From TrEMBL:
It is a multi-pass membrane protein. The lineage of its organism: Bacteria, Bacillati, Actinomycetota, Actinomycetes, Glycomycetales. InterPro entries: ABC_BtuC-like, ABC_transptr_permease_BtuC. It comes from Glycomyces harbinensis. PANTHER family: ABC TRANSPORTER PERMEASE PROTEIN MJ0876-RELATED (PTHR30472:SF25), FERRIC ENTEROBACTIN TRANSPORT SYSTEM PERMEASE PROTEIN (PTHR30472). It is found in: Cell membrane. This is Iron complex transport system permease protein. Its main location: membrane. The chain crosses the membrane at residues 25-46, 86-106, 118-138, 144-164, 176-198, 218-236, 267-292, 335-353. GO terms for molecular function: transmembrane transporter activity. The keyword Cell membrane applies.
């Protein structure tokens, strides 16, 4: 017969758990901040330049176009705003969004924060196509020839890298990276060969294209790249959960039902579409796909459901502000956008490399 419990024991209840302090939703806060930076960047970029346009006139012109009242900008300002400034801003939004989203997918696919779209040869392959079109004077597609050649060459390069790194029905990450390095080296040699046989005018055009710029932005170019960008940007979030599972390791992801090989193939195709479309209309703009996703990953965490849209917005905002700086810092001259992003991105890459080596052992 068991002893009866003391009278005070029956009245005792577990101590209530302390009230849970809810931390602010960091991704939501970041989204609001990025949207604000993006909207402000669009207005400031459209306002500043050789022909200054007041912000109030820009807002009134936009409202007028939307049928919400307002009035067009007086004189030549309306034409400058809608035929020069806004095409450049919108193209910058698309290019930045594509590069940053592609970088996020690459880092998730390789499981390494040092990965970026150029590692599988998309950018260098697109550069070879564009340089070849300039050096050989190709005009089969009119004003679209260079962009078309760049896009096709970028997709072809990715296909070659993937096929060469595939063995026994599988593609190893290390083999994919090393193959991309080799293809990038070959692409650099081909570009040098084309430059060697080009004349002075062609060399000038090749050099300017390799430095990256949005100065040739037009509404037709935007309409050409918009479908590809829309397909890539709308498809990428569908892979967020599988990317999160892949971050646990390939073996764990397979046990959880992820077809790793098919996932990798799909991601490579999306990255090729996004990067090829961006490079074809803007030239080579580096470090956006490396810097933006990693900064946002450190701030918002590794979950791709939030990281993909945040990186897309962040890349668009960075390009808009960087292009504004490229146009105004050395006015009336214009600094090539690719040079400006490299000047800022290179020191960040060195810091990121040291940080990654200290915490993770580098490319382990």
């Amino acid at each position: 017969m068991t002893a009866a419990a003391p009278p005070q024991a029956a009245s005792q209840r577990p101590a209530p758990a302390p009230a849970r302090i809810r931390r602010p939703a960091v991704p939501a806060i970041l989204a609001v901040v990025l949207i604000g930076l993006l909207a402000l960047g669009v207005l400031v970029s459209a306002s500043n330049g050789a022909f200054a346009i007041p912000l109030g006139d820009i807002v009134a012109s936009i409202a007028h176009k939307l049928g919400l009242g307002g009035a067009p900008v007086e004189g030549t300002g309306e034409g400058v705003l809608w035929n020069i400034r806004f095409p450049r801003v919108v193209l910058g939004l698309l290019v930045g969004a594509c590069l940053a989203c592609a970088g996020t997918l690459m880092q998730g696919m390789f499981g390494n924060p040092l990965a970026e779209p150029g590692i599988i040869g998309v950018s260098s392959g697109a550069a070879v196509g564009a340089v070849a079109a300039i050096a050989f004077g190709l005009t089969f597609a009119g004003n679209w020839t260079i962009s078309l050649c760049a896009f096709i060459a970028g997709l072809a390069t990715v296909s070659v890298v993937y096929l060469m790194s595939r063995s026994g029905g599988r593609t190893e990450v290390v083999t994919l990276v090393l193959t991309g390095v080799a293809v990038n080296g070959l692409a650099g040699a081909l570009i040098g060969l084309f430059i060697f046989y080009a004349d002075n005018d062609e060399i000038t055009a090749i050099t300017f294209w390799q430095m990256g710029s949005l100065s040739q932005a037009t509404w037709p170019k935007i309409l050409a790249v918009l479908p590809l960008a829309a397909v890539g940007l709308m498809t990428a979030p569908r892979y967020a959960r599988r990317l999160d599972l892949l971050s646990l390791g390939e073996r764990s992801a397979r046990h959880l039902g992820v077809d790793v090989e098919r996932l990798r193939l799909h991601l490579i195709v999306i990255v090729a579409l996004l990067t090829g479309a961006a490079v074809a209309v803007s030239g080579v703009i580096g470090f956006i796909g490396l810097v933006v996703p990693h900064l946002l990953r450190m701030a918002a965490g590794p979950g791709h459901r939030a990281l993909l849209p945040l990186s897309t917005m962040g890349g668009a905002a960075v390009i808009v502000w960087a292009d504004l700086a490229a146009r105004t810092v050395a006015a009336p001259a214009e600094i090539p956008l690719g040079i400006l992003t490299a000047l800022v991105g290179s020191p960040f890459f060195f810091w990121l490399l040291r940080r990654t080596r200290r915490h993770q052992g580098g490319w382990a």
